Amino acid sequence: MRGGRCQQRQRRFLPGWFWRGFLTNMLNPKVGVFYVSFLPQFIPAGVPVVPFSLALAAIHATMGLAWFAALTAATRPLGRLLVRPGLVRAIDGATGAALVAFGVTLALDRKG
To answer: What distances in angstroms separate CA 76 from CA 32, 55, 66, 81, 100, one per listed residue?
Structure first.
């Protein structure tokens, strides 16, 4: 019964997550800077700039949506595996060891 209640709660909040992500993306100045600096180089001379830019932005958004959908579909089966305490502890340990190794390497690096 508990799992059913959790699923109902998740379904109820899904539109909220969408709008939260949408608002975060729209208020992020990096998104606008990307489109203003990257897309103009792909606009051919003699075409209407605004419609062509919007078409390029729509293509980019569609590709991003397809990528994240594929990524979600590919990693969803790993969700059950990644909640196991032993695996979480092992991943945390490996990540911590890698960060400590990078820190030690950086601290001992001599510029000369």
So the answer is: 31, 31, 15, 10, 30
CA angle centred on 22, ends 18 and 25, rounded to 5°: 140
Tokens of 91: 């991943």
CA angle 7/10/12 to nearest 5° reads 110
pLDDT digits (tens, 9 = 90+) for 65-108: 999 999 989 888 888 888 899 999 999 999 999 999 999 999 99
Q: Quick one: the chain helix, strand, coil %, rounded to 5?
A: 85, 0, 15
Give a three-class secondary structure readout of 27-59.
CCHHHHHHHHHHHHHHCCCCCCHHHHHHHHHHH
DSSP designation for 83: T
pLDDT by residue (tens digit) across 42-55? 999 999 999 999 99
The answer to whether 39 and 56 have CB atoms below 8 angstroms apart is: yes
